[in-house]
Amino acid sequence: MVSITMPIDENLRAELKRFSWVNWSEISKEEAMKKLIFEKFMKTRKVSDKDNEFCEKVDWHPVDELPLKPSYIKKLQKIRKEKGIRFNSVDELFKKIK
Q1: Which helix (H) or strand (E) segment is 12 a member of?
Q2: Which residues are CB-contacts of 47 (< 8 A; sequence separation ≥ 6)?
Q3: Is the pTM of this model over 0.70?
Q4: CA–CA distance from 38 to each of 25, 27, 47, 61, 63 (Å)?
Q5: Domain for residue 9, yes or no?
Q6: Distant-in-sequence, close-in-space partners of 54: CB < 8 Å, separation ≥ 6
């Protein structure tokens, strides 16, 4: 197995040491895999079975990285402007559902 060393400044190193329980190597590997899978996805618009296993394991998919479509943003903005319904209790909510 190959090992990679990355130089980081002292401030970042001090910040990372605060999270001693975090496996930074594993996080780096996952992020590198995500980058590779995303690049392949952008070229082919497909995800291999092996890559899909990884995606399921880390609960991520290349489409998560794509920007939202303008039509979807408009739809979300419209929903945000709608007035919500207030309930005083969970029982009141369930009565409304029935």
Answers
A1: helix 10-17
A2: 37, 40, 41, 55, 61, 62
A3: no
A4: 20, 16, 9, 8, 8
A5: no
A6: 33, 37
Residues composing the chain: 98
Q: Which helix (H) or strand (E) holds 27?
A: helix 24-44
Number of domains in the chain: 1
Identify whether 19 is part of a domain: no
- What pLDDT, in 10s, does the model give residues 61-91? 999 999 999 999 999 999 999 888 888 999 9
What token pair was written down for 92? 């009141």
Whether 53 is covered by a domain: the verdict is: yes
